[in-house]
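Researcher: Good morning. I'm working through a list of sequences from a screen, and I'd like to move beyond sequence-only analysis. For each chain I'm collecting a predicted structure so we can compare shapes side by side. This is the next one on the list. No need for commentary yet; just the structure.
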Amino acid sequence: THVLPDPDLVIRTSGEARISNFLLWQSAYAEYDFVDTLWPDFTPEDFARCLNRFDARHRRFGTAQV
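Model: Good morning. Structure tokens for this chain:
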């Protein structure tokens, strides 16, 4: 993964609210979206909803809100 940039968004399907150590260091500042849809049923519309929620977030990259 050293030739690719770190992810901004990680989408976890299946309703599991855990990351299972997936890209643990690379996703330190990523936003996570946990969705109930199973991967085979994940549609472009589901992806668009994830992107819309991501776009609405205020990212702080690990800094405290003052």
